[in-house]
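Sample entry (215 residues):
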Amino acid sequence: MHSNLSAIALFTTTAALITTSAHSAIVSVSGSAALIAAPISAQFSQLPGPPAYCWNEQSNVSWSAGVLSVNTLGNGFWTGPTPNAAFLAAGPAFDSHMIHFDATQGVSNVGGQVVFSSNIVAVIYENVLLDATDAFLGAVGTTYETGNPIRSHNASLFQSAFQVNNNVLDFTLWASAFTLPNRMTELRVLTAAVPAPGAIALLGLAGLVGVRRRG
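Predicted structure, serialized as tokens:
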């Protein structure tokens, strides 16, 4: 009787942990990119670049209200004047991260690479879509340039470009403090939330208990 109760308790604990996720984080940056803690302000002129500043925003965000408007999904290369539009369906949880380039120091472009701890699900770069996701995907305590059209690109990237290959994002971002409509360029990167290691271990242990009980 005691062993059955122990198995039930283990199964209950495991079931609770299966839904637990660890934070998918920025593992490394290179080129003209710098990893920082989430800043107090990401408004124009507060983080003059180069470099492009990168930080983690929110973790384990579940989207259940229909589809989420994003600019790109999954792997690929994007640039040029053609608008990019995609929709992320409700489903597994994801984490959000920011790549932010502000041209107030007079340098119009920057290039680099960001490596994440899990695969990239989607990227948002369009100013109105960034505005729409600041409240629930932006870092807590960070003030964004919400509602200001100089913030980032419209639906077209023009000279900017980025490439996604699983958990790696390479970018060349263009902005201008004086001439381009976007005086900043931002990429909000959504990555897959990953199961916590303890949950995976307990899930396997629960399976062994189930096999033992059946034996």
